[in-house]
Amino acid sequence: xxxxxxxxxxxxxxxxxxxxxxxxxxxxxxxxxxxxxxxxxxxxxxxxxxxxxxxxxxxxxxxxxxxxxxxxxxxxxxxxxxxxxxxxxxxxxxxxxxxxxx
Length: 102
Fold this sequence. Notes:
about 60% helix, mainly alpha, 2 domains
């Protein structure tokens, strides 16, 4: 049952829609720039992207020598797969082939 006047209901729904759009825009903010040529992503363009990238470097350079070889290799593979997934999800415009004219 609806207790709001039609005018108030429209205002409430439009405000809710605006808030949802603002939230979604912030939630989908790109972390990585696209490459100018080729497929994939370039350097990070936000602090979240730099955090992911530096965490990956630390995990791949510092930790494997401290672990047994097989565990270190597995760590590198999992960290690389995770980095590629995050980059693909958070690259501005997504991953696609670019030829420099974009």
